[in-house]
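Posted in: Structural Biology > Protein-Ligand Complexes

Title: Requesting predicted complex, guanosine-5'-triphosphate in pocket

I'd be grateful if someone could produce the 3D structure tokens for the following input. Sequence and ligand are given below.
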Amino acid sequence: MSDVTVRSLATLVGTPVDKLLEQLAEAGMSFSGPDQVVTPTEKIKLLGFLRRAHGRSEAAAADAAPRQITLKRRKMEELTVPAGKGKATVNVEVRQKRTYVKRAEIESPQDDEREEAQRKLAESQARNEAENAALEGADQKRRDELARQRAEEEAAAERARQEVEEAARRAAEETAVASEERPRRAHDADEGRAPVVRREPAPAPRSDKAARPARPARGGGRDNAGGRTGRGELHLSDAGSARRGAKKRPTRREAGRGATGSHSFSRPNAPVVREVAIGDSIVVADLANKLALKGGEVVKALFKMGVMATINQSIDHDTAALVVEELGHTAVRATDTDAESTLIALTGEIQGEVEPRPPVVTIMGHVDHGKTSLLDYLRRTKVAKGEAGGITQHIGAYHVETPKGVISFLDTPGHAAFSAMRARGAKLTDVIVLVVAADDGVKPQTVEAIQHARASNVPLVVAINKIDKSDANPDRVRQELIQHEVLAEEFGGDVQMVPISAKQGTGIDELLDAILLQAEVLELTAVRDARAAGVVIESSLDKGRGPMATVLVQRGTLKKGDYLVCGTQYGRVRALFDESGQQVQEATPSIPVVVLGLSGVPDAGDDFVVVEDERLAKDVAQQREAKRRETRLVKQAGNRMEDVLAQMGQTDGQPQQLNLVIKADVQGSVEALRQSLTALSNDLITINVITSGVGGITESDANSAATAKATIIGFNVRADASARKVIEANGLDLRYFSIIYDVIDQVKQVASGLLGKEVREEIIGVAEVREVFRSSKFGAVAGSIVVEGVVKRHKPIRVLRDNTVVFEGELESLRRFKETVDEVRAGTECGIAVRQYNDVQPGDQIECFERIEVARTL
Ligand SMILES: Nc1nc2c(ncn2[C@@H]2O[C@H](COP(=O)(O)OP(=O)(O)OP(=O)(O)O)[C@@H](O)[C@H]2O)c(=O)[nH]1
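-- Reply #1 --
Done. Output follows.
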């Protein structure tokens, strides 16, 4: 494209050059002469000037500019083109082509200008929109505020009116919904406005949309509500209809929220009220678990109620129920353990054909009147001999077979065993054989036996023993018995009296006949073909066989392979042995049998019952064990010396009582302890010695302690087995000492409220000395069997003889089959050598203990 000069431009537009130069000058462009080149921009500028001069807009001129330039620049040219065989010359009008590259170059400054202008325009628009939105938001807020105030006024008026109209409850609900929605609507409106402000260049429609959620609060809301009135009315009560028009009804969405979502939105969650099942007692940690609380919180709550308990302590039902209520939950009494009730349901009703069963007999009588001799005679002569390798030990019961029938004897002569059985409600015995020595007559224990028989409604058969003796006088016995209302048949009574000699065997068959006759009168029967149930007579831990229990089957048939629950133990019958040590496959009613296969050693007097599956057996046993443990813990609580102190100050200024039972090895110690301990009484605590004496701790000592909730102090003496049972059953606090100063110090510290560390002795095992060997290295070595716990090497020990400490020292050597071992567990034999002590004797007990430091707690 050729350059356009002022002259050529003047020619093109038909304007004299001078005029054009003038016009260019007027348009702000000075040209030195007519031959100066005019750029397209300058031409556009000139055109704009000329247009303005003619009253036309610059924009229109700008729009037209490219067209004008293109269209007006044309020229006629001649072109030679092929035509047939020759060539032809044609005239063509050539429009001068605008080079768009060039045009872009021209336009680029103009584009920049336009973009700048557009940017400013957009900014201005955005500012306007933001301002509008802000204004709209402010307006909206104002409108919402007004709407809220109006709604409040309306609601207040509504409430007042509805109170008058006695539609209080429904009105209150609606008002609550309305008042809950208001803050939410305001919140919605705020949220709607906020994004507009933040998104500055947001387009206008969006700001409208954002503002929309607030609309229902204005007149539009009423329109909406009006549109939905038909649907809404279906759910309106009369009271609701009466209010129509007076108040904006919530939109469907709002109503939905009001009905369901309002709680989670405007109110805190309602506290969860848990229903907690509590049995007779519960451990604090378990209770916390049930309440979904931390143990510490429950301990704290208990503390506030004045109950001091640690997390592992058991609290009784009433205390637990109180703390549960205190914590805002509900306590219910736990129905008896599930597994136990399942067991009762399963075993409660034994159906089947009843058949006669042998009688179970207990032999009673005064000391030395011949009970053991009678049992021995029967065993020797009437019980089949055991095979080698069978169980040869005493099993507590046996049965004898006579031509006229079978009789089972409980081989536990003595009143204690009988009363223990009776105390457990176990009616084991069908007949009591009362042995009275013909040379000695009726004695106190004879009378006691009569009373037992009467109390438990068990018939008597009297065996008048020792008739072989020259001074025997059976008639005197009969006479004396009349005084106790035991009338012989010979005298018209109903009691059979058989003269016997246990030593010579005289009259034994007659005695057995008499027992069977008595049994016939009793018409003893039991179901035979059923799952077995019965009672444990005796139990022990055999080192080879594990726990062994002699049980008496009372109904059903106990078979090898049966699953059974036995007190707190369970298991599967691995083997059954009869009293002669022979394996048997089953045991029928009234037959005693030794059971192997239990998980542990049950207590004498425990019931056993056969169940179908092991799972149930295990569950029941475990639940019973847990219950027993809890009961023991509850009993223990409050019995310890420290607990007595903890209760101090809770008895309205009355001094607290600390009761003690003191037993010591010698009278001197008893007196010393009694005097020094009672002297420790002060204003806060009175120390009473309930019982004291020389010798081991007996059952009667333990019973006294249980009655008085006393702490038992054993000074160089120990509790015997029956005392330990009472102590354990009652959770009594039993403490052994060997230094008088320690006793006084401990009681003094407790009494004066001193806390701190306390060194306690814990007996970890007891071994019984069977034989004593001599060793060149160790001197006397006690061949012993560990009967309880575990005996450990290098631990302190005490040697006890008749439950009295005879030596205290250290266990020097502990061996099993010539091998030195570190410890020996219960039921295992071992050799024990005690450092610097060679006087050990068979029958002694070696008690192994540990000294542990425990923190005193209140
Ligand atoms: N002559 C004679 N002596 C007998 C007879 N029965 C028992 N004895 C003796 O009486 C003493 C006591 O007999 P036990 O069988 O131990 O009496 P117990 O009633 O079992 O005595 P405790 O177990 O202490 O209650 C023993 O010395 C027996 O030998 C008998 O029929 N005739």
